[in-house]
């Protein structure tokens, strides 16, 4: 933005001194292109465009550090200004900076609410940190990450139904069904032994486990709907 302010001040100087037919030289090609862009919406850019329309002042690009006297002088003065204790001009945050800061604040507040919430304790095993990136769920696999589904533990919590696992286990949780239940032992026959030694939070995002877990849940739901 320093280059933009320099161009704006140079144009103002030419107007104040009635130097109508002149050129303002800059080595910032990106700024000059932004000023010419029809999509540029920043206020200072719009003001520069208005000033240029009312005068015969032209903008011209020169290569940096190429011996152009005025450009080399401007570069030396900018370095001198950067070493000053006091700031002559201060810019407000850009839209991108405002969006970034807003996102930071939202993420912090969201994380605090997530950490302090008494709900979602099971889901927190897999998602400890909140993120803005989108997750693409699956009807069956969402039951693994939320513990909401046709299994007994959720039915009891939601509807007050007393329902243990048909294998004899008192509480039918999603973890029990996938990793321990004897009824689904055949589906686990080809699993590596290390899977059964891990916590489910270490397996939930592993693609081969995910595929097998979905198969088990499909069979479980079909059995419940047809029983």
From TrEMBL:
<protein>
    <recommendedName>
        <fullName>RNase H type-1 domain-containing protein</fullName>
    </recommendedName>
</protein>
<feature type="domain" description="RNase H type-1">
    <location>
        <begin position="1"/>
        <end position="83"/>
    </location>
</feature>
<dbReference type="Pfam" id="PF00075">
    <property type="entry name" value="RNase_H"/>
</dbReference>
<dbReference type="InterPro" id="IPR012337">
    <property type="entry name" value="RNaseH-like_sf"/>
</dbReference>
<dbReference type="GO" id="GO:0004523">
    <property type="term" value="F:RNA-DNA hybrid ribonuclease activity"/>
</dbReference>
<dbReference type="InterPro" id="IPR036397">
    <property type="entry name" value="RNaseH_sf"/>
</dbReference>
<dbReference type="GO" id="GO:0003676">
    <property type="term" value="F:nucleic acid binding"/>
</dbReference>
<dbReference type="InterPro" id="IPR002156">
    <property type="entry name" value="RNaseH_domain"/>
</dbReference>
